[in-house]
Amino acid sequence: MITSLLVANRGEIARRIFRSCRELGIATVAVYADPDEGAPHVLEADSAVRLPGAAPADTYLRADLLVQAALAAGADAVHPGYGFLSEDPAFARAVLAAGLAWVGPSPEAMAAMGSKSAAKRLMAAAGVPVLEPVEPEAATAADLPLLVKAAAGGGGRGMRVVRRLADLAGELAAASVEAAAAFGDGEVFLEPYLPSGRHVEVQLLADAHGTVWALGERDCSVQRRHQKVLEETPAPGLPPALRAELAAAAESAARAIDYTGAGTVEFLLAPDGRFFFLEMNTRLQVEHPVTECVTGLDLVALQLAVAEGQALPAEPPAARGHAIEARLYAEDPAAGWQPQSGTLHRIEFPAEHPVAGTERHSGLRIDSGVVNGSAVGVRYDAMLAKVIAWAPTRAAAARRLADALLRARIHGLTTNRALLVHVLRHPAFLAGELHTAFLTEHAADLLPAADKRELPLAALAAALAQAAAHPGPLPAGWRNLPSQPQVRRYRAADGQELTVGYRRTRDGLLAEEHPGVRLLDATTEQVVLEVDGVRRTFGIARYGDVIEVDTPAASVTLTALPRFAEPVVAPTPGALLAPMPGTVIRLGAEVGERVAAGQPLLWLEAMKMEHQVTAPVDGTVTELRALAGQQVELGAVLAVVEPVRPADCADPADSDGPTGPTAPASSVIQ
User: Fold this and answer.
1) Which residues make Cβ contacts (< 8 Å) with residue 413, sequence separation at least 6?
2) Sign, CA torsion 503/507/508/513
3) Rounded Cα–Cα distance for residues 46 and 213 (Å)
4) 3-state secondary structure (DSSP) of residue 531
5) Over the stretch 566-600, which tens digit does the pLDDT of each residue have?
6) With the CA atoms of 584, 585, 587 and 591 taken in that order, what torsion angle do they form, in degrees rounded to the nearest 10?
7) Where is 170: in which H helix or E strand?
8) Dihedral, CA of residue 267, residue 418, residue 383 and residue 663, to nearest 10
9) Residue 94 in contact with residue 88, Cβ under 8 Å?
10) Predicted TM-score (pTM) above 0.70
11) End-to-end CA distance of the chain
12) Phi, psi (5° rounding) for residue 335?
């Protein structure tokens, strides 16, 4: 019997596992790297063990330290969560060798699925359909497009789409370097790429007594950079026969390796209905809550039961309804999915609520690793929370989830919330027309231009809330005689500057830029305006000079500007600035080298994603201030490129010169 469990992980998944442990009466042990000392998962555990250091390689990826922590805290079992060492058979063996229970499949089953290329050969032998690999030296134009994939690991890392044979060698090399850095294994392989395919996976749960449950399929096709954004179950639009075939193939995969515990078999579903094995995740998946919502099961509790040797019932419970999960990320989709870091001042969602008549079927569920005031760094994944909605139908679940996201108050960081809402309300999504290029195909609809009136109204509300911060017998800005308007200036998140002018008169608010707007009430936290006869409420929160304005339709971040601009030091001409905090993982140029516009100069890693910093123009690298392995802050000067002068060009007409293309992943001062 498990009495004390160490979770060899952090953040959201650690908190999720602790929740099940509390219900079961199992004591919990957390581990934490130095940046996580005050993190919610640490504070919620019964005890916690420090892993000295900050980098994952020194902390959460140290099997020896994790085993020592479990023994020191008196735990009798280890749950790996997902990510980090969750699919490392060597870690599982170390846990078992220390006399601890391992909450997961056997090391042998993990090893069998640890290499995607080897797993495909094993699955083909078991009769599971696979995509035949393509030998790089034998690839032809007829094979295009192709997908380069890392044999180890996942999460979209070490993955490249090749659309031209001329790019194949470079993409293979780049994927190998990224895979080696991320997983310690540079092996990559090629397979056909289906741009309009769907990513469909089957949730499995198996015990040591021969019972294997296939708990329905999930559609995870809405992705960015080969990483999932929305997941749902059941997968929309699949014929019953196809669902049965997917379940049977997943069960065959599990039986082929004597699998026990929770796991997921992932398939690529072609438009013609054929499906192919992609990989098997020998752990709990990020998206497991949608399966829990439709089945009423607690998959973590069942993992623990299987680890204790308990037998599953012969058949799983029947699923009902539909569940959709949205991954809320600290990132800016409009800026190439650039990850965000800093202080999350506030994160609040509508209250969770179960569906009447059952404890497990949840109408709205929030799984998160952060709270108000959490510091979001660059060393870990950018996901802030998983927001999950259940309803009797898919359309109702999508509507409930979109509404919950809109009503959330998220202050301090840019997120992908607006994009998620637009996806959930998009006609193609609602029609079930899903594929892995969905976000690219519908980009224009999912990142629409901001409402031109919403931003000025938010600025007016912010100004009135600021005025309400000065209590007295008369409202701030009131004059007995007509006077100049009160003026406040703000900068929006997109850099746009707004000037708000208004007066408080005997007849109420007078804002010449807003005819038809009437002030009904104003406090420091809420402003109520009547706009063209419609009453609208604006929630206001201030953090220093930053003001967050929330409405049911949008959320706006404003920075209050001083009346007189402060003098600034001119930056170095031609300097490339770090677009985000991160770690320089490799360099692509040297000082004195002539480079072309768009040529990668270095690569930054932040929040498990790789970002290129490219030359903005044709020119010469005159300075290179960053080294491989160096941690850099937002705005740090990474390199300086001196633009080529027309006189230096053999043929000036062939040069982009100083007006050449600028790469979105870098910031440059000209």
Assistant:
1) 330, 340, 341, 342, 343, 344, 376, 384
2) negative
3) 33
4) strand
5) 665 556 667 888 877 778 888 888 888 898 888 88
6) 30
7) helix 168-183
8) 90
9) no
10) yes
11) 66
12) -115, 45
